[in-house]
Design brief:
mainly alpha, 6 helices, 2 domains, three-stranded antiparallel beta sheet, about 150 residues, globular
Length: about 150
């Protein structure tokens, strides 16, 4: 959703994950220390994520890779299939979302590949809270510490 080209797999073995990262020149993000070590030794750029909460994980990634922690619909990609999403009119989505959603929201985006439709509903508020918390954590991590 932040506009970065990412792939997510939770059903592949470590060898396949490393193969994809190497072939597609991707950074392998993982919480698995053994996978991180194997990838690093194999010359694959890997990053070990240590945060417990979603905000902590995002803050680590933002700090390490200079990721912008803001959703811009013009750059956003589908969280399901990684395809760039496009604006849709109410008319285009009227049969694809609940009628209450059509009444309350004016802006919609859709994925041309998988067909999912997105709007700034209640889930959006949770996403923005998490992004704000992550931004605050990044700012804290960048403040110089005072020596005693």
């Amino acid at each position: 959703m932040l506009g970065y080209d990412v792939e997510y797999f939770n059903n592949l073995d470590d060898n396949k994950l490393m193969e994809i990262a190497l072939e597609e020149k991707r950074v392998l993000l993982t919480r698995d220390i053994q996978l991180f070590r194997r990838a690093s030794v194999s010359g694959i750029e890997a990053f070990l994520i240590g945060g417990r909460t979603e905000a902590e994980k995002l803050a680590e990634l933002a700090h390490r890779f200079r990721i912008r922690l803001e959703v811009n619909a013009e750059d956003s990609r589908c969280p399901k299939c990684n395809t760039q999403i496009n604006p849709l009119s109410k008319e285009e989505v009227k049969d694809r979302v609940p009628q209450s959603t059509i009444r309350y929201y004016d802006e919609f985006w859709g994925c041309p590949k998988c067909g999912n439709v997105y709007w700034q509903g209640s889930h959006w508020k949770k996403i923005n809270r998490t992004l704000l918390e992550a931004k605050q954590l990044v700012e804290l991590s960048m403040k110089p510490t005072q020596e005693s």
